[in-house]
Every structure is written in structure tokens, then in C-alpha cells.
Amino acid sequence: MRVALAGLATSHPFTDAHTLARHADLLVWEEDPERLTRFTEAHPAAKVLPSLAALLAAEPDGVVLTVPNPRVPEALAAVLGTGAACFVNKPAVATRAQLRELDRLPIHDRVLSSSVLRFAPAFAGTRVDPADVLAVRATVRHDVGLWANGYNAWQDTPGEGGGTLVTMGIHGVELLVALLGPDVRLAGAASATRHYAGLRSEDTGVMALRWGNGVTGTVEILGVTDEESYTVTVHRRGGSDAIVIEGGDDHVRGLGYEGTIEAFLAMIGGAPSPVPWAQTRAILEILVAARESAH
To answer: Under a CB-based contact definition with an 8 Å cutoff, are residues 19 and 43 in contact?
Structure first.
């Protein structure tokens, strides 16, 4: 089996590669020399290709796509032309214009784009009865101080990568949509920068959601934190239940990276994506709407 890593724009494909290398031969393309060198030092057996076209011409069995958000629709279109299973690292898009471009593509059932947290052992398999739910809340604690120093500035730029609200907010929205489904809309959003003055976006944010059945939800994004953790709280008449997702001793497994790649490998074997595209599309709509309305 051969898996292509199309771009190394974030830290995620570096983590993905450690799991993939146990199952497949790796092909890689990345335009940034420093990122490519860091990758090949960790994976010297990986075959380096000079362009995305050359990477896809090598006929990989599956593709992990990680390019800056403005480039995702065009790159994904090229991958779709091969028919290969594809995992698009989160978030697939971050702006309304990018989402319109994505909507024009013939997304098939072996395309997956998701926060890895959906596949975290602490959360995977969680089910709720919507009739029993009053409200839900997702709290995302992930520090963004690295961006304040200029690292990966495109991610922190609202019009390119969406900033903290989108790039970290997807974790919370993903978990809530996984629980309650895609019939959801944004009711409002707000953000602020109170600690990391060098950011182009924000270091805290909040989204209010409402499902078609009347359940309300809240996503809190805390980009100023000494710890990384994700909590989903389900409020019922008789009390509240909390699910906490943390890296623990093995963050690749604990945060869902390993489970995501296992799902991707199953797609290479012919299985459909475990995340219906209707859910992914609903999540992206919430994020884009929040980016447009937050102030």
C-alpha cells in the first residue's frame, strides 16, 4: 500500500505519518524546504515528489491532504480526479469564498474531513437521545501563543485560515454535530484578544448553536491555556454528564489521531467515510458563519 502526504502545512501530517508508516510506503510533496527536510529526516524511506501532479501521477492508494485553506479546493479537485481515498486535515475551508469553491466539487463517499477528536477513545461511540437533551456545551482548551510570534501566519489570518475561532473552534463544533447531527445553525458568535496581542485573529471565542429540534449548544474556545483538553457537557433534566478528552501518556491515541488514520485506512480498503459529508458541510457552514459574524 502507498499513501501520499500532499502537503505538510500543519503539524497534523507529521503526526499522521508515524501511524501511516506502520502500514504503508509513504510518498510526500511539500513546497517548504524546511518542513520537507524535517519530514524526511523522520521518514528517510519516504519518496519525495516535486509537485502535486507528480505525487498523484504516482498512483497512491490514498491521499492525506494538508495545504493552506485557500488552496484546498483546487488541490482536492485534483485528488478527486484520481478516485483515491482522501483525508483532508481540518478544517477543509475557512471562508465563504473557499466554501463556495468546495461546494462545486464532486465529493465522493471516500472523502473524509474531520477533527481527530471525533475518533478519540474517550468520545468515539458516544450516543445520546436528543429527546433527553436540554443543551450541550463543548469547551476547547488549546493554546495559540505560537501564532502570536508569527508561526504559520496564514492559519491566524481570518481571511485565509480562519484564525482561532475556526481552526480551534472546529474541535468543539465537530463533537457536538457528531452527537446531535447536521440540522444545526449558528445563532451567534463573539471573540476577543485579551492575552496574545500579536495575533491576527483572537485568543478566545464563543459560538451559540441551535438544532432544528430546539436543542441549544455552546462552543467555548480558550486559546490561552497551560493545558490541552476538550470537554463535552450534555445537560439533561436530571443532571449533566461530561466527557473529557485529553492526550494522556499517548496523545496520538488519546486525541484521536490513531483512530482517524485507522478510519482512513479502512477507506483505502473500500469502506465509505465514517463521517457523512452532510455533517462535514454543516460544520464548515457553522465555522464560516461564525467567522463572518464574530466581533
So the answer is: no
